[in-house]
Each structure stands twice: as structure tokens, then as C-alpha cells.
Predict the 3D structure of the following.
Amino acid sequence: MAGKAEYAEVIPFIQENQAKFYRLAYGYVRNPDTALDLVQDAIVQALRKISTLRSPEYLKSWFYRILINECLMYLRKSKKVVLFDQLEEHIPAPEKPVDTVDALELLNAISHLEPMLQTIIFLRFYEDMKLEEIARATDANLNTVKSRLYKALRLLKLDMGEDE
Amino acid sequence: MSNRVEEAYNCIPVATELPDVVSQALQRGRKIQKRRSVVKYMATLAAVISLVFITLLNTTSVFAAAYEVPILGDICRIFTFKKIDLEDETKIINVKVPNIENTGNTALEHRINLEISKLISEEVENAKNRAQEYYDAYLLTGGIPGEFLPLEVVIDYDMKCSDAEIVSFVIYKFETKASFYQENRFYNIDLESGRELTLRDLYGGNYKEIVSARVREGIAQLSEERKFYLFDDVVIEDLIDTDRHFYIDSDKTVVVVFQKYEIAAGAAGQLEFPIGHIPEHNND
């Protein structure tokens, strides 16, 4: 049952994590306006479907599930092919003195994975979610999540020519 | 790995509009929420099944080429002619009514636009009635008014292909409610003659063999997982006739569509098979 308590927790959760939502959406569509639209739609959907949130502990995976669905539906509908070059255009040099080339390379590699693999990498390593949570968020069973994760990692290493 | 992924994603600059967009969305969501504020839906909500209704319209002037190339000032466009948004305790309906323009054939344009408008307003009317029926039945069976889950209907469109010769687009309808209902509507209209196009028009007298062969190739290439869902007793030839649904994709590929349950179990969803580039000309 969703009550007022759950509802009260959703708003701050969304406000605090909006940048993450945006980055996930951007990773799929690589266009700022579309990413904004998708985040907006996901929030409206989430509030509309708040009664499907069973307990606050599922908040994160529940919301991501809605956001991911919005994004994947968009991708399916638009079937847009995003060109490799378009990605870099929107990405100015990061402020921090991190190893920027590597980070950008990795970002490029990630965003060339198929959407579901991208999702797994994002949720596991950026959102630091447990595999069970990822399974809930992506509506898949644990074994599927595991094999997707291994596949994504394998592909990334191949892509990057890494030996990490 | 975790750190590196974080660094990578942090390279994506966040749009400055994001906070505004988020608070607007929260407001919009709140309004909807308010209306159902006392609502406590059961956790296991009615299964959300999307109802797909597709109207496909392929207009092409390809056959006009043999006679006279129509002078087209611009490429045919599709635009939102009208938006319909209806919300109350029984339903949430969000509809975009598309119109086409710049086809170079005003009479045809009018006819098609009128047809689209008529089709969609019938759909909206039906949805309204259905929502009311559900609502009445719900109350009759002892449901609490505030807890009714409204029928949600979204009608939207998607341009498949548009150039000087062909326009092909899809009108989708998604309906969300415990029941399941699916309908596909396709129109294929020759821009010059105003006549409806069929696979026979595109591929000539042997269209059944040509199209079936390509579909079978497409089936052979399906993943094992999807093949598993295919019905065993389907004869593709029997399903390829002049009523077969198709659209023309942006790269001019003719794509044949089998709706859900037509050749495979529901889990396989709607199946689409590219047949090939649209034939250049046909002197029928």
C-alpha cells in the first residue's frame, strides 16, 4: 500500500537525484532536450503510479524502473541512430583533474552498448545498486542481470582494449 | 570500476534547465496525485497491458512517375493538427491528431486528414464510453469511487518515411486497463490516384511468393528465444494477401507487420519483417 509516507519520500528522492536521472537518460539518447523530456515524463508517470510503490525500501528500483521504461520506449519508438560524433559535442572538458581522456573514452564505450547493458552498468557502478535491486529495476531475473553484467563488462574491456 | 564509471558519467554536463523541468514535473504529478489523494490502490494493480492500435498510412506517388512527375514544393510533412486532453475520475485521455500537408495533392490530403480526424474522434468517443462503462460496473460491484483506476488512452503518431514520393506514418493507440484489446488499421494510398496500395501493387502478380520468401528468411533470423514462441501451424503464404499490414521505413524498406498473436504467442509481441527496398516502378 502506498500511503502519505511513501509519497513524502518520493519528492525529496527525485529532487536529490535528478542529475543522476538526467545522466542515465542522456546516456541513452545523447541529446539534452530529449533527456530532459524523458526525466520529466518519468517523474509525472511515477507520481501517477505512486500506488504501485509497495514500500519505501523499493523506492530507488521502483523509480528507475519507470525511468528506464520511459527511455527504452522512446528508443524503440524513435529508432534513432545517434552518431558517434554527436556525443563529444555536448561534453566540455571536466573541471576536475581526473584522467579525462579515459573517462570520456569509457563514457563513449558505455553509450555504445545496447541500452539494456548500459542500464546495468549505470545501476551497478554509478548508482551502486545490488544485483537484486537491478533485477527489480529492470524487470529481469537475477541470472539475466548477472549474464548481462558480465557481457557488458566483457564488451567494455574489448572496446577499450583494457586489461583491468 | 565503480569509480571509473562514476567519472565517466560525471562527464555528462547536466542541462541548466533540469531543476525547472523537475519541479514542473513534480507539480504536474502532484495535481494528478491530488485528485486521487485518498486513493489507496491495491499493490497488485490491474496488469498494465498496452493496447496497440496502429493506423498506417502509406501514400506514394511512385506510380505517377510513368506519366508525369508531380511538382512538389516541399516534402510531405506531418504535424499535430489538434490535441485532445480529457481527464476525470473515469479516464485520462491524451490524444494528438496528426494531419499531413505538402503532399502535392490537396484533395487527397483533405480526404486523408478528414479520415484521420474521424477515426480518432471515433476512438476517443469509444474510449470515453468504455471508461464510463468500466466505472459504472466498478461501482455496481461495490467499488469505492475514489479508488477507481482510470482508463488511460494515448494516441500519438510517428513518421516512418517522407520524401517527394512517399509518406508513410503510423498512428499508435495505447490503452491501459486490465483488459486487453488490440487493433491495427493500415491505409496504403497512392498519392496520385488516391487508390489504396497493397503488396500486390508493389510486387506484382507474384507478390505472395516474393513476400513470403522474405518473411521466412526473416523468421529464420529470429533469435532462438523468439522462434520458440512461433506457432507451428502457420502457413505464411496464407497470411500474405492484399490486406496484409505494412509500412515503408525511412530508408524505403517495405516492412510487413504481423500483429501480436497472429503468428506467435503473445510474448513474442508484434513481429516485423523487412521485405526489401520499395520496387522502383511498376507499370500495372
